[in-house]
Amino acid sequence: MDPQLQHAFLMDNSPRLGAMQAGKRFDLWQKRARNTLGEMLGLPFFSRVDDDLCIEWTREENGVTETRMTFATEEHYRAAAHLLVPAGITVPVPVILCLQGHSTGMHISLGRPKFPGDTETISGGDRDFARQIVARGWAALALEQRGFGECGGTPNGPDCYQSAMAALLLGRTLLGERVWDISRTIDVLTAHFPQIDAGRIAIMGNSGGGTASIYAAAMDQRIAAVMPSCAFCGYKASIGMQHHCSCNYVPGILRHFDMGDLGGLIAPRPLIIVNGAKDEIFPLESANRQYEIVQQYYAAAGASNACAHVVGAEGHRFYADLAWPEFCRLTGWKTAQSREHRTNA
Questions:
Q1: Residues 92-111: pLDDT tens digits?
Q2: Closest by CA position to 182, among listed 158, 162, 208, 164
Q3: pLDDT, tens digit (0-9, with 9 covering 90-100), for 128-139
Q4: How far apart are CA 120 and CA 10, in angstroms?
Q5: pTM of model > 0.85
Q6: Whole-angstrom Cα distance, residue 139 to residue 4?
Q7: How many CB atoms lie within 10 A of CB 336?
């Protein structure tokens, strides 16, 4: 009499109505599937407003120019971000958007502990993404996601539940709100920062940040490359059969897509999927099966060599030493030879 047993059966037999059928044109499938996913995320309920960019301060330190900003992504909501650009650049450089998972906020990406436990979070999992990026000579933007840090979080961690439930009442999803904020961030970067190469915008994140990265790249084709960490997995094995934060859930999605299908919406752009062999909340066996689906989509897109699956030996964390070489290989982005990569890991 356990309803979850029925749910497990239904998830095993999900029709995946939005998956590409044999013999269908890949580009037409992507267009239809992207529209379906956007509706499920609640994106039709969003309206653009002027970004009202406010640069709070800019400073240069250790060869990096950092800009702290806030901007409007929709009516009555502002996002906060830090943009780090190598000082003295003479040509536009690539930029990577950094999204933290369920932590105390974007300062983790900046490698700046603010609360008890932050130091261990950073050093224990290569989570200082922005520092890693600028060390390679690229720009990094640390974005505060809704429910985290300055945008609704607490010193003890994120606070997603009420926001996620309220969004559902409005026909939206918290995940869709995060995707919207990411797209509006790209609008701000391309409109106001000429030092950014608009053709080389990538996104990365761990856990909840990796999840938002996948959905954002599936929806916004301006994102040129994607590197989600410890987020890519079949829905049943992860959020379907385990307790996860409510911000992971999109009503009805498993009737249309599994995670591998979202990977198909990213093709043919470079996709570097990172998993941990011992990650119990995003099990590797399921991730491997979904990656096989991704490979089928990339083959259909004529881009079989544009995706990679990186597996670290430990658990729920990023694996910088394994992931970055694959990122550089698939994107072709060159690192600055004069910079040395230093992290706390």
A1: 999 999 999 999 999 999 99
A2: 208
A3: 999 999 999 999
A4: 40
A5: yes
A6: 45
A7: 14
